[in-house]
Design a protein that fits this description.
The chain is mostly helical. It has 5 helices and no strands. The chain has one domain. The chain is 75% helix and 0% strand. α2 runs antiparallel to α3 and α4 runs antiparallel to α5.
Length: 140
């Protein structure tokens, strides 16, 4: 008869720990990215241009956080795939921002609302780009 091990049922798995690290990294990355976006808007920049600049700066900043802290990847071998993921995320975010602004939200609130779906999509794409669930060389 199989014995139920309560302790192991509630112990954090590596995947759950990875999701928690991703969420923490996401808070840091979001604070950085949204701050850049808001500062650029405050300085008078068009929202779409502010979003583009925020994404360019963010992809470099976020790679360092995600690769090392969340997924344990060393080096920059996976950076091109990561950057391509961010290109897709940028266009999804830009379309959401535009659509939300067209229904009457100001750019600050529109971008805040867009963050939810973008965060979910980003975990799915970034975890693939950095090798989640694959036997991979952790050095790069």
């Amino acid at each position: 008869m199989a014995r139920l091990n309560i302790r192991s049922a509630f112990a954090p798995s590596e995947e759950r720990a990875q999701v928690v690290r991703f969420l923490w990294a996401g808070l840091i990355n979001t604070a950085f990215g949204y701050s850049v976006f808001a500062l650029l808007i405050f300085a008078g920049m068009h929202p779409q241009l502010a979003l583009l600049l925020q994404f360019i700066l963010g992809v470099i900043w976020n790679f360092c956080i995600h690769a090392r802290f969340v997924f344990g990847v060393q080096g920059y071998r996976r950076f091109p795939l990561y950057a391509m993921s961010y290109v897709v995320l940028y266009f999804v975010n830009a379309l959401l921002l535009r659509g939300l602004m067209q229904v009457g939200l100001d750019p600050y609130l529109a971008q805040a609302v867009a963050l939810g779906p973008v965060v979910i999509l980003s975990y799915l794409m970034i975890s693939r780009a950095l090798g989640r669930g694959q036997a991979m060389d952790r050095r790069g």
